[in-house]
Amino acid sequence: MLPWSISNIERFIAVSTTVAAPEKSVGTAYLLWFFLGAVGAHQFYLGKTGRAISYIFTLGWLGIGLLIDLFTLPKQVRAVNGTPAA
What we know:
The chain has helices at 6-17, 26-36, 41-45, 49-62, 64-81. It is mainly α and 86 residues long. The longest helix is centred in the last third of the chain and has 18 residues, at 64-81. The protein starts with 5 loop residues before the first helix and ends in a 5-residue tail after the last helix.
């Protein structure tokens, strides 16, 4: 048997092509919130597409959602990054 059987090659390719997603930044999330929050840019950045689309149609839930995000963005970023709460 060859040292590089098909199953070994498949495992090697799977491992070499796996790339970790970069961590999201709280600073970037706040910048997007400040400048484009009413259209949900910070929610798109965090991968929350459904919530972001709802922001577009309601202008950030008429500002209430934006106010909530002002205080909860760090927690949302930690959840997306998979880091424990501080």
